[in-house]
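Saturday, quiet lab. Running sequence design on the structure tokens for the scaffold JK sent over.
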């Protein structure tokens, strides 16, 4: 009957629970295409090394293509002794082409094979993730471009601080995501390092041409040390660190929108498509999409931290602990991908209530502008800050707004106050004064839109 690929030195049977415990096929089968691509390249390298004839190579390559087709068509039949995607594909190859299939693994180990598969697979996924994130940013940028007229309170400490453009806030999150997009591109060179040809740990004794393998598989560089090649999983940690940070940004934006969607704020209304109801309270419309985005950031961070714990204290080269790299990575990747799509949908479809945002603006948010007014009349800011603070206190004691104090009131605080003080109490004017790069003026918001649009075109 069938035996395990490594069964030669064994006389005893694997414990059934151990068999389950050991097998990774149920989750690593998603790398089937990368595994086959690696094997096809390796077969070609074996021919160049004189191990296979061209005829043998062709048979192996055709066999591997047939195996790939079975996976694609969903008809690959998993056998009980298939341990992982590598043994499953090799077992099936030999069933299709016969004993010649047994030549493919010459000089190769699952150790350099799995590391190659993981890197190759991740490189492909990074492209999708890049597109997903760029899609989210694009929606935010277009929305920001269209809604530049809308003013809202800007907050620090979640206390009303200064008026800003709604677009300015949206773009602030877009810039965080834009940095994530750059960071993701920056980790690619460290993912794109070829382990194939490192063998089990010590290197390849058949002198396979690793430069050929690198080119065949599209890697940027070659692992220069075979122990490093089979034992390194830092690229997985790094991707999950990246994902954790990106999810932190998703979470912070989600939190803003959760708050803004409360009745107390009423700044935004999520579309029904991204909300759910309550099983008991008929009136409820909950921002579950945003809460899940916020919640899942913890999950991705957990994947990263968990796998880092797996790596800590491992001896050099390959250890089976490394099989634990897959589930956290796959889960992190699935979670960020879905999160970008959901966030994009939420942002694209939510309703923004300009009138509610405007109504939330209060004159005290212009206290800085009031201080700045006196600065322009030559008084040092530290003094004007104090004078403006006294105006705020006076208005508070009178239970009125800053613009309801009389000119005499103001002149009682400082004689530089004049009739033009009414110009201070204008939210639009306040926002427009922030016209240095990075400010919330219309022009500077438009500039941000252009900067992001331009950068997205190059990615
Ligand atoms: N399934 C294994 C993994 O994911 C493949 C490598 C197994 N290597 C070995 N020497 N047992 O890490």
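Result came back. Writing it out in full:
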């Amino acid at each position: 009957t069938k035996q395990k690929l490594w069964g030669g030195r064994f006389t005893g049977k694997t414990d059934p629970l151990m068999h389950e415990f050991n097998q990774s096929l149920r989750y690593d089968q998603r790398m089937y295409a990368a595994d086959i691509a690696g094997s096809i390249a390796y077969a070609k390298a074996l021919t160049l090394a004189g191990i296979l004839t061209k005829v043998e190579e062709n048979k192996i390559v055709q066999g591997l293509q047939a195996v790939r087709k079975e996976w694609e068509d969903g008809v690959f039949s998993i056998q009980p002794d298939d341990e992982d995607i590598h043994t499953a594909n090799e077992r099936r190859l030999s069933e299709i082409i016969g004993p010649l299939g047994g030549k493919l693994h010459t000089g190769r180990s699952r150790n350099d094979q799995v590391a190659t598969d993981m890197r190759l697979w991740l490189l492909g996924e990074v492209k999708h993730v890049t597109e997903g994130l760029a899609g989210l940013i694009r929606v935010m940028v277009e929305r920001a471009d269209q809604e530049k007229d809308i003013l809202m309170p800007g907050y620090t400490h979640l206390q009303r601080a200064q008026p800003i453009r709604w677009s300015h806030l949206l773009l602030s999150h877009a810039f965080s995501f834009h940095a994530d997009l750059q960071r993701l591109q920056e980790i690619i060179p460290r993912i794109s390092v070829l382990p194939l040809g490192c063998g089990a740990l010590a290197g390849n004794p058949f002198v396979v041409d690793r430069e050929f393998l690198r080119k065949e598989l599209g890697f940027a560089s070659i692992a220069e040390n075979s122990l490093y090649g089979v034992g390194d999983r830092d690229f997985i940690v790094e991707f999950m660190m990246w994902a954790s940070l990106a999810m932190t940004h998703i979470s912070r934006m989600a939190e803003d929108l959760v708050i803004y969607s409360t009745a107390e704020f009423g700044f935004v209304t999520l579309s029904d498509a991204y909300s759910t109801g309550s099983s008991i309270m008929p009136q409820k419309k909950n921002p579950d999409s945003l809460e899940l985005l916020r919640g899942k950031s913890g999950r991705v961070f957990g994947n990263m931290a968990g796998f880092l714990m797996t790596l800590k204290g491992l001896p050099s080269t390959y250890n089976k602990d490394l099989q634990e790299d897959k589930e956290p990575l796959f889960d992190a990747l699935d979670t960020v991908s879905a999160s970008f799509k959901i966030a994009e949908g939420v942002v694209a479809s939510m309703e923004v209530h300009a009138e509610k945002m405007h109504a939330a603006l209060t004159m005290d948010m212009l206290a800085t502008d009031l201080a700045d007014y006196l600065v322009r009349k030559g008084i040092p800011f530290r003094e004007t800050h104090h004078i403006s603070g006294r105006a705020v206190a006076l208005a508070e004691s009178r239970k009125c707004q800053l613009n309801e104090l009389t000119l005499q009131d103001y002149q009682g605080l400082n004689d530089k106050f004049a009739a033009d003080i009414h110009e201070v109490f204008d939210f639009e004017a306040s926002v427009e004064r922030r016209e240095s790069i990075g400010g919330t003026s219309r022009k500077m918001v438009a500039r941000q839109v252009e900067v992001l649009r331009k950068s997205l075109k190059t990615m």
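Notes for JK: The CA atoms of residues 168 and 406 lie 33 Å apart. Strands lie at 151-156, 159-165, 193-194, 221-222, 268-269, 351-352. Ask whether to fix the surface positions before the next round.
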